[in-house]
């Protein structure tokens, strides 16, 4: 007698093969290619910023950093690029341990460290759900994590965003295990490395989680004291009064910038090299600022103050806020979107474990997959065809995907709130 066809087993084998093939692709895009092109990266800014800072020099001066690289005997592939350090002064202290190695070896160490931290961040995001996950759910999360182009861009450029993603994921995990002070300290550390994670402290302030806020404040003050002691006050004055204004005054309409501000700057032709629909810089600034504030206010309104011990609600709320930060930030390069793996993992879990209205579930899944594919894929935003006419709007396709994902998270939060589901 023939055995019955085991559909579940076939689907498990198929899912496992998909994850294995994705792992092969990840090794190529996340390890081999970044290792091959190690010299053309932002890591050079970090490394030589730390070196100049250790010598008491001005690490906000690109010429000084480039001269340090030239003096170290770096090849033309490194020094032909402009050096531009945009981070808080404490970051050069954070990077000092890498000065124990040559620039080339430090870059390799940085690459493998970031790959390890990315894997740990994904595990922490899953662990923070505080629920068992099925085989298919785990496979879906692994597939999504292994095919996310913003991660590859981050690894290729030697950027810092995987590190901040890991700190945010670890803070979430600590908070979900009632370690509020350590969670806040991790957020404080992330904010001292890169300012943007500091907005998560505002979220916990809104939620009246005072221990998290206090932990973040104490950590930030402690690290600032260390930074002042080791670097002096001048770099801190330069960061506040020179570097931040310089970043704000930079053109925000670059094709690689996927923020809300960049959308309006391109739409209204403000510092945009292409041919825009309109030419009104004032309207560009008004619309970008007002709608950014609207998104922030709506995020607080959707999440509300009271959550209690609903673990999924906390994850959904923080995932929504991670999207809000990327949408309203003036600068959202593709490698900044590493953080968006938190919303992706959270929504995958929601789809597997929380029942939706039968008629709307397929639509929800379709919209989620559409948003993920757009965020995960590579798009030729620099193509000349997208520099004029209606095709200018195509450059912001990843912004539309972020807004779609934001709306889906908002819908999920509202449904859980309405149904009173709790863990």
Keywords:
423 residues, mainly alpha
Topology, element by element:
Elements (H helix, E strand, L loop, with lengths): L6 H30 L6 H12 L7 H10 L4 H4 L10 H5 L8 H25 L7 H12 L2 H9 L3 H16 L3 H14 L5 H8 L3 H22 L2 H16 L10 H8 L13 H23 L7 H18 L12 H13 L7 H16 L20 H23 L4
Quick structural gist:
By secondary structure, the chain is mainly alpha-helical. Helix content is 67%, strand content 0%.
Secondary-structure element series: HHHHHHHHHHHHHHHHHHH
Percent of residues in beta strands: under 5%
User: What portion of residues is helical?
Assistant: 55-70%
For the largest beta-sheet, the strand count, sense and barrel status come to:
none
Low-pLDDT stretches are none
Specify the overall morphology.
Answer: globular
Quickly count the helices: 19
Describe the structure.
- 67% of the residues lie in helices and 0% in strands.
- The chain has 19 helices and no strands.
- Helix 2 crosses helix 3 and helix 9 (161-176) packs antiparallel against helix 10 (180-193).
- The longest helix has 30 residues, at 7-36.
- The model has no long low-confidence stretch (mean pLDDT 88).
């Amino acid at each position: 007698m023939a055995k019955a066809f085991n559909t579940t087993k076939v689907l498990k084998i198929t899912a496992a093969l998909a994850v294995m093939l994705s792992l092969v692709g990840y090794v190529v895009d996340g390890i081999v290619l970044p290792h091959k092109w190690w010299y053309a990266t932002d890591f050079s800014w970090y490394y030589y910023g730390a070196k100049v800072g250790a010598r008491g020099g001005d690490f906000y001066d690109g010429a000084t950093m480039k001269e340090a690289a030239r003096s170290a005997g770096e090849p033309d592939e490194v020094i032909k690029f402009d050096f531009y350090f945009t981070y808080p002064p404490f970051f050069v202290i954070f990077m000092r341990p890498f000065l124990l190695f040559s620039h080339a070896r430090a870059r390799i160490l940085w690459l493998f460290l970031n790959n390890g931290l990315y894997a740990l961040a994904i595990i922490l995001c899953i662990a923070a759900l505080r629920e068992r996950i099925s085989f298919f759910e785990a496979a879906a999360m692994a597939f999504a994590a292994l095919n996310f182009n913003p991660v590859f861009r981050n690894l290729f450029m030697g950027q810092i965003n995987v590190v901040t993603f890991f700190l945010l994921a670890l803070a979430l995990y600590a908070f979900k295990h009632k370690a509020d002070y350590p969670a806040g300290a991790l957020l404080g550390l992330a904010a001292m490395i890169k300012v943007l994670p500091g907005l998560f402290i505002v979220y916990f302030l809104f939620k009246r989680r005072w221990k998290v806020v206090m932990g973040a404040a104490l950590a930030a003050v402690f690290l600032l004291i260390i930074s002042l002691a080791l670097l002096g006050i001048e770099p801190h004055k330069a960061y506040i009064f020179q570097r931040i204004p310089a970043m704000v005054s930079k053109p925000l309409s670059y094709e690689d910038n996927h923020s809300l501000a960049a959308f309006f700057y391109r739409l209204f032709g403000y510092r945009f090299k292409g041919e825009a629909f309109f030419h009104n810089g004032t309207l560009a600034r008004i619309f970008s600022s007002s709608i950014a504030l609207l998104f922030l206010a709506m995020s607080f309104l959707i999440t509300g103050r009271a959550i209690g011990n609903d673990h999924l609600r906390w994850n959904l709320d923080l995932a929504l806020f991670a999207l809000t930060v990327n949408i309203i930030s003036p600068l959202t390069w593709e490698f900044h979107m590493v953080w968006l793996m938190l919303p992706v993992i959270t929504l995958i879990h929601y789809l597997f474990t929380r029942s939706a209205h039968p008629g709307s579930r397929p639509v929800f899944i379709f919209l989620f997959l559409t948003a993920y594919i757009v965020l995960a894929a590579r798009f030729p935003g620099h193509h000349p065809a997208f520099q004029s006419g209606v095709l200018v709007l195509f450059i912001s396709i990843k912004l539309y995907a972020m807004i779609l994902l934001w709306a889906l998270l908002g819908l999920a939060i509202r449904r859980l709130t309405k149904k009173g589901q709790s863990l």
